[in-house]
Every structure is written in structure tokens, then in C-alpha cells.
Design a protein that fits this description.
The chain is α+β, with helices and mostly antiparallel strands. The protein folds into three domains: 191 residues, no CATH class; 90 residues, no CATH class; 107 residues, Immunoglobulin-like (Sandwich), CATH 2.60.40. Helices cover 44% and strands 20% of the residues. It is built from 16 helices and 16 strands. Strands 8, 9, 10, 12 and 14 form a five-stranded antiparallel β-sheet that branches. β3 and β4 form a beta hairpin. The longest helix is centred in the middle third of the chain and has 27 residues. The protein is elongated and about 110 Å long. The N terminus is likely disordered.
């Protein structure tokens, strides 16, 4: 019984090894510079995109806006409606397939360079380092008993974190409520209930995830880290340790006849998730490449070739030749094929998108009526959905039976980005016409240079 309890306890320790707060050592190098380039790129887009204006057909407006109230998504000159859900679905599928493709090629490259958790953790750690000092100073501060200096430093750090988290939340909500309307409402405490909820929630979420949870998200909370391995194959490039070159390890003064690794531990010190890459590929590794930067610096100092830790495949570690291209890799080829198919489908859907939708509803309250001149009329309601940001006029025609015509006006104007329901009576000769239900077709044509045309089928009843 005691042995069983001991085994369960060991299993729990293996599943979650609490190491305390990780204070990673800062390191310079090509991968660290690439990571900061991604931070700047993503945040310029995120924080700056909400302030862009666009002079569209409907006048000046925010360039990127998810207008939930009016059920529109503005992307510069493109305006998407709920009817364009297929296009949005294709975009999401393309994004997911691209992520799988990159993962199959180079592991968790997205996690190490572009994941929002990584980006904001880097920003928050940078603030922490400016306030509290380098990794050793922060470690000593953690171990100090509470005192005035420690409390002051922590207060400044958390205050700056709150400012960044708060501005991030304001920017996020600004993509749903125009930012130039949101800020005055926020100052006057006049934000709506949903705006208030998301401002508080997103600020708290950013503060906790990037400031407090940090590497715990990658280690224990992120589901992607758990199933990423199924996308790898022996030719997937991951950050790895060249054991054949590095072992046996030894201090610099004892490396004669031993491996290249001098057991300095810098690869562990710089790791944001606190793992030892020399233990092999681990799900906590986010492929950030910081251990490569650290190890390369050490190799430079001791006059050894770089690349003891590098992006390397399982085949290379086993001494097998490196794959060239994607043909011998069915998994990568499948991801590439799917990515191409969905990208083409997205482009085709966008190209064939018509800024007009027409719904035809036959009046079932009155099946048909006979006019004094002997003609038969059926009533219909057409919903004209003008997806363009300009007023448009449409002419409606009908075909399918001899002598079929629309009674009254057949031209209707629809305001920009709106829906207009029009009631139509369609007339057919009553004499010498076959009885029963017949298929007819409405054609709605825009009276502008675009000449948009939409056809919708319906039925016509004759006695």
C-alpha cells in the first residue's frame, strides 16, 4: 500500500514540478533579435491598427472595426456581413492549416516568436527587468524579507503592468466600439455593460497571463503543447542538443578528449520555460532559440564551432541524411496541399462575392388571385440586402412562364448597407396556361457600372 502511494506521489511530481518563479537570464543573439522584431511588428499592427481611418464609400470611418451592433466587419474597403460567414470560415481554416504546416516544418515556431502569450510575457518581463534589475537581482529580491525598498519596486512594477494591461484592453475593445467613441465614454464613465465587462476581463486576463502565470501557461495550460507532437515527423526541425558532439560534458579545464559541452548551464539559465534542452525534446520547449543564442556565445568564447545547440532534426541527430523538399514527407505534403486548396477557395470566394443578397418569400396567405382582365397574380416579398456602402438602385425582372410580368414599378432603391423589403405582384395570362405550380426565377440587376446581378428561384401557382 505504501509503495502504491509513493508511486502515485512520484507521478504527480512528474506531471507538475513546481520550480518557483523562473527568472530567465537575458541574452543577445539572432533569435532574440528576431523575437523582439516580432514583438514590434505585432504590437505596431495591434495598437496602431485601431487608429487607422478609411475613406470608404460611406464616408470616413475606422479602417478595422467589428461592428457587432450593425452586424458588419469593416476591413478597409471590404465590408463583410453575416452572409459572408463562409469567407471568414475559410480564413480561419487557412490560419489553422498554416500553423500546422509551420509546426510540421519547424516545431513550435509560432509559440516562440508570435504567440500573444510569448509577446506579452516578453513585454512584461522587460518592464520587470527595468524596474528590479537583471535575473540575479530579481532572484535576490524574491528571497528578501518584505521591506520598504522591495514593496516600492513591486508597486512600481505592478503599476506599469496594470497600465500596459489596461491599454491593451482598451485597444482590444476599440476594435468593436470605435476607439474615438470609446475613449470619451471611458473618461466619462459612460461605457456600456458589455464594454465594461470586456475592458475589465481583458485587462485582468493580460495582467495575470503575462505578468503572473508566464511560463506556467506554456507548461501546464496551453493545449497546443500537448498535441503538437502528432504533427512532427523525423525531419521536423526543433531546437536540439547535439549529444554526439557535446558528450561527455566537462568543465573547460577538463575538456581535453571530452565533448564540446562545458556544462556551463547557460542554456538552462536563458530558457523562459526553465527546461534543460540537453535532456532532449520536451513539450514545454517553445522553440524560441534563446538557448542557441546563449550556447553560441559560449562556443565563441572558447573558440569552438557554433551549433552545439541548434535547430536540428531527429534524422540528423541519428546520423541519417537530411530530407530535401516535402515530397518524402507525406504529413507536410498533406498540410501544404490543404493550405493551397483553402487559400484558393478563400481567394475564389472573395472574388465571386456579390455585394447583393436577395431573399424571395412567396405570400402563402393568398395563394393567387384573378384580376378583372382575367390575369392571375401571385404576391411575393423580396428582401434586397445591399452589402455595399453606397445607395444603389435595382431593377427586378421575372421569367419562367410566357407573358409573366411584374405589376407596377420594378425599380427600387436601397440605402447603403441596409435591407429593404419590397412587395411585388407577379401577373400571368390566365387563358391557355397549364394549371399547377410552376418554377419561375427573379433576376435582380443593379443599375450602376458594376451591374451586379442575382437570380433567385421561386414558384408561381395557376388554377
Amino acid at each position: 500500500m505504501n509503495q502504491t502511494v509513493s508511486k502515485v506521489r512520484e507521478a504527480r511530481i512528474e506531471l507538475y514540478r513546481k520550480k518557483g518563479k523562473i527568472h530567465a537570464r537575458s541574452v543577445d543573439g539572432r533569435f532574440n533579435r528576431a523575437r523582439w522584431a516580432m514583438v514590434w511588428l505585432t504590437q505596431i499592427i495591434f495598437y496602431g491598427g485601431v487608429w487607422l481611418t478609411w475613406n470608404g464609400q460611406g464616408g470616413s470611418r475606422q479602417a478595422i472595426l467589428f461592428d457587432i451592433t450593425h452586424q458588419k466587419l469593416y476591413l478597409f474597403d471590404l465590408v463583410l456581413w453575416p452572409q459572408d460567414a463562409l469567407l471568414l470560415a475559410f480564413v480561419l481554416i487557412v490560419g489553422a492549416t498554416a500553423l500546422f504546416f509551420v509546426t510540421a516544418l519547424a516545431g513550435r515556431l509560432f509559440c516562440g516568436f508570435a504567440c500573444p502569450q510569448t509577446v506579452y510575457t516578453m513585454i512584461f518581463v522587460w518592464i520587470e527587468a527595468r524596474v528590479e534589475g537583471d535575473h540575479l537581482a530579481r532572484l535576490r529580491l524574491d528571497q528578501e524579507a518584505p521591506n520598504a525598498r522591495k514593496l516600492a519596486l513591486r508597486a512600481v512594477k505592478h503599476a506599469l503592468w496594470v497600465v500596459v494591461a489596461g491599454w491593451t484592453a482598451i485597444t482590444f475593445v476599440g476594435y468593436f466600439t470605435p476607439i474615438r467613441e470609446l475613449l470619451p465614454a471611458l473618461v466619462a464613465f459612460e461605457t456600456g455593460p458589455w464594454e465594461t465587462f470586456w475592458l475589465i476581463f481583458y485587462a485582468a486576463f493580460t495582467y495575470v497571463q503575462a505578468g503572473l502565470a508566464r511560463e506556467a501557461v506554456c507548461q501546464h495550460m496551453c493545449p497546443y503543447s500537448r498535441f503538437q507532437g502528432v504533427m512532427f515527423d523525423p525531419a521536423t526541425a526543433n531546437v536540439g542538443y547535439d549529444r554526439g558532439r557535446g558528450e561527455p560534458r566537462g568543465a573547460l579545464r577538463r575538456t581535453g578528449g571530452t565533448g564540446a559541452c562545458i556544462d556551463c548551464g547557460i542554456c538552462v539559465q536563458v530558457c523562459p520555460t526553465g527546461i534543460d534542452i540537453r535532456d532532449g525534446l520536451q513539450y514545454q520547449c517553445i522553440n524560441c532559440g534563446l538557448c542557441i543564442d546563449g550556447c553560441d556565445q559560449v562556443m565563441d568564447r572558447i573558440g569552438a564551432p557554433r551549433g552545439l545547440v541548434r535547430f536540428i532534426t531527429e534524422n540528423e541527430l541519428a546520423g541519417r541524411p537530411k530530407h530535401r523538399g516535402i515530397a518524402p514527407r507525406p504529413r507536410v505534403a498533406a498540410y501544404a496541399g490543404l493550405l493551397a486548396v483553402f487559400a484558393v477557395a478563400t481567394a475564389w470566394t472573395l472574388h465571386e462575392r456579390v455585394p447583393l443578397h436577395v431573399d424571395v418569400i412567396r405570400d402563402r396567405g393568398v395563394l393567387m388571385r384573378e384580376t378583372p382582365d382575367g390575369r392571375i397574380e401571385n404576391a411575393y416579398t423580396l428582401k434586397l440586402i445591399n452589402l455595399a456602402e453606397a445607395e444603389r438602385a435595382f431593377r427586378i425582372g421575372v421569367s419562367g412562364l410566357p407573358g409573366l410580368e411584374i405589376v407596377g414599378s420594378d425599380v427600387f432603391e436601397v440605402a447603403p448597407g441596409s435591407i429593404r423589403a419590397v412587395t411585388l405582384a407577379v401577373s400571368s395570362p390566365g387563358a391557355d396556361m397549364p394549371s399547377g405550380i410552376h418554377r419561375i426565377e427573379f433576376e435582380t440587376v443593379a443599375l450602376d457600372p458594376l451591374r451586379t446581378a442575382v437570380r433567385e428561384k421561386s414558384t408561381f401557382m395557376l388554377p
